[in-house]
Design goal:
Strand 9 and strand 10 form a beta hairpin. This protein has two domains: 85 residues; 225 residues, Deoxyribonuclease I, Chain A (4-Layer Sandwich), CATH 3.60.10. It is elongated, with a radius of gyration of 22 Å. The termini are far apart. The protein contains eight helices and 13 strands. The chain is an alpha+beta fold. Helices cover 36% and strands 22% of the residues.
Length: 327
C-alpha cells in the first residue's frame, strides 16, 4: 500500500512539473515570443493544472508542491478565464436591418467527401460561404454549390493560399488579382479574398477571408498577421474577417492583432480543432481543444454564432448571422 502511495505521489509530482512549469512560463509570452507558443494550449493547461492541484491536496504532498501546483493553475486561469467568461456576453438583438448568414470552414486538404460538405452547407443555408484548404482536388464542390451560390472567387496558390468564397449575393467589388495567385503550386503560402456587398437597403460591407500558417516559425506567421493587418486597414467601412488563423485567442499574437487591426473578435472560446488527427496509417477522431477558426468584425452587429456539424474535416465549421447598422 505504501509503495502504491509513493508511486501515486511521484506521478503527481511529474504531473505538476509537466503542467505548472509551462503554465507559469506562458505568462511571459508577451516578452519572449517563443513562450507564447505555450499559450495555444491553455485549455489543456487550465484543466491539467487544476487536476494536479486537487490530486496534490488529496495525496498530502508537501506544501511546496501544493503551492507550486496552485501557482500553475492560477497563472493558467489568468489567461484562460477572461476568454471563457467573455463567451457568456449577450449579443445585440436583431433589428429591422437585413440579416446575413455566413459560414467559414477549413474543409481539410485530405477531405474528399464533397457531397458531405455540400450537405452541411445546404442544411445551414448560409448566404455566404468562406472556405479554407480548398485544394484543386476538391473542385467537385464547385459544381455542387454553383446552383445556389452563383457568385464566387477561388484562389489557387501555395500551401495556405487555396481558399474560396461563394455567395448568393452579388459582389459590388472584388479583390485585386495580386491578392489571388493563380498557380496551385506557387511559392506564395498565404492569400486573402476581399469582396464588397451592397444590400437592398443601401448599406455596404466588405468580407475578407484568409488562412494563416502555424505559429512556428514565429516570424513567418507574424509577417502574415502584419500583411493581413495592412489589408484590413486598407478597407473602408464595415468589414468582416473570417478564416483559419492557426492561433488561439489565448495567445499574445492574437491579442496584438485584434488591438492593432481595430477589429473585434466575435469567436469567444470557440473550440474547433482538431476533430480529426493525422497519424501513421490514417486519421483518428479526437476531442477538439484548439480555437483556431475566427470571426472578426468592424462596424457590424453579430447576432448569433455557433459551431456547425462535422463535415469530414479536421475543423468544425463556424456559422454566424449579422446585420449592418444603418447610418
Amino acid at each position: 500500500m505504501l509503495l502504491l502511495l509513493s508511486l501515486a505521489r511521484l506521478a503527481c509530482v511529474l504531473l505538476i512539473l509537466a503542467t505548472a512549469v509551462p503554465a507559469i512560463l506562458a505568462i511571459f509570452g508577451s516578452l519572449v515570443p517563443f513562450l507564447d507558443l505555450i499559450n495555444h494550449l491553455q485549455l489543456v493547461l487550465f484543466f491539467a493544472t487544476l487536476i494536479a492541484t486537487i490530486i496534490a491536496i488529496l495525496l498530502g504532498l508537501p506544501n511546496d508542491w501544493k503551492i507550486f501546483a496552485a501557482m500553475g493553475f492560477a497563472f493558467s486561469a489568468w489567461t484562460f478565464m477572461p476568454e471563457w467568461l467573455s463567451s457568456f456576453e449577450a449579443r445585440p438583438p436583431e433589428t429591422d436591418a437585413q440579416v446575413i448568414k455566413v459560414m467559414t470552414h477549413n474543409i481539410f486538404g485530405l477531405n474528399y467527401d464533397m457531397d458531405r460538405v455540400a450537405k452541411v452547407i445546404a442544411e445551414e443555408n448560409p448566404d455566404i460561404v468562406a472556405l479554407q484548404e480548398y485544394f484543386p482536388e476538391q473542385a467537385g464542390l464547385d459544381a455542387l454549390l454553383k446552383p445556389n451560390y452563383p457568385y464566387r472567387v477561388v484562389c489557387r496558390g501555395g500551401k495556405r493560399a487555396n481558399i474560396g468564397l461563394y455567395s448568393k449575393l452579388p459582389f459590388d467589388r472584388e479583390m485585386r488579382d495580386a491578392d489571388c495567385p493563380d498557380n496551385a503550386y506557387g511559392t506564395q503560402r498565404t492569400a486573402h479574398i476581399i469582396v464588397g456587398f451592397t444590400l437592398s437597403d443601401g448599406t455596404h460591407f466588405s468580407l475578407m477571408t484568409t488562412h494563416m500558417d502555424w505559429p512556428f516559425p514565429i516570424e513567418r506567421q507574424r509577417a502574415e498577421y502584419l500583411s493581413t493587418e495592412r489589408a484590413v486597414k486598407a478597407v473602408q467601412g464595415p468589414l468582416l474577417l473570417v478564416g483559419d488563423f492557426n492561433s488561439t485567442p489565448w495567445s499574445y499574437v492574437m491579442k496584438a492583432f485584434e488591438a492593432e487591426s481595430g477589429l473585434k473578435r466575435e469567436t469567444r472560446n470557440l473550440i474547433t480543432y482538431p476533430e480529426l488527427f493525422t497519424v501513421p496509417g490514417g486519421l483518428i477522431h479526437t476531442w477538439p481543444f484548439l480555437a483556431l477558426d475566427q470571426v472578426f468584425e468592424r462596424g457590424v452587429a453579430v447576432h448569433e454564432l455557433h459551431r456547425g456539424p462535422e463535415t469530414g474535416s479536421d475543423h468544425l465549421p463556424v456559422i454566424f448571422s449579422f446585420s449592418v447598422p444603418r447610418g
